[in-house]
From TrEMBL:
Cofactor(s) of this protein: Mg(2+)
GO cellular component, as recorded: cytosol
Domain of life: Archaea
A GO molecular-function descriptor: phosphoglycolate phosphatase activity
Source lineage: Archaea, Thermoproteota, Thermoprotei, Desulfurococcales, Desulfurococcaceae
Protein name: Phosphoglycolate phosphatase
Record's function text: Catalyzes the dephosphorylation of 2-phosphoglycolate.
Amino acid sequence: MDLSKVEVVAADVDGTLTEGISFVLDIDAIKALRELERYGIRVILVSGNSFPIVATLKRYLGTSAPTVFENGCGVGDFNWRELVVDEELCNVAKEAAEILLKVLSTNGWKPSWQNPWRMCDFALNSPTGEVKESDAQKAEEILREFGYLKHGIRVKASRHAIHVMPERCGKGLGVERILKRFGIPLEKLAAVGDAENDLDMIKLAGIGVAVSDAQDVLKKHADIVTPYPAGKGFAWFAKELLKARGLSS
């Protein structure tokens, strides 16, 4: 593990650049992100959010790399955008999400307000505001009964929602697509996250980083676990990276 080789940082947003698992960006994380970019270390924003949300974050945070949106179902920038799976499969995922909502709405689950702008990953928000892995498992069983799993549709959990999407989608796949586009090897990538849906990205990277309040499955596979949670943890890692690169201000 050699931090001095890192040229690109893939950063999850919710729970990694925010204050805890809230939707409020952490000031220290923003400053750290800007410092990385100032020294030429490109930051890829990686999120389960829709493209308009992630693209807006990119513009106002000032990141230079393309984004990964909808949990890796798509990648893009202001000048280009593409899905990593067939559009037909995305239509099946949308249909499956609508069926799932009909079943779960009686228990208080609601569609994400972003769904009208989503292309392939359709989210349902928990009535409690927090999602457990068991919620995703129960949702998959419902889709199994309706025959959607055999069509390659799966349910993944973030901390705020369950996501109905094609099985091939993943944050790691999206990040890898961007790295190949720019000819950057995986060993020059560090990835930072907090939740189970960041796992494939963490495994893919030359250096995988979990913030201290990350879910256990992520910390188990990470090369580095930060001493601080969420955005403060990202800021700590950015400082350590700059120090290893001899770029500390």
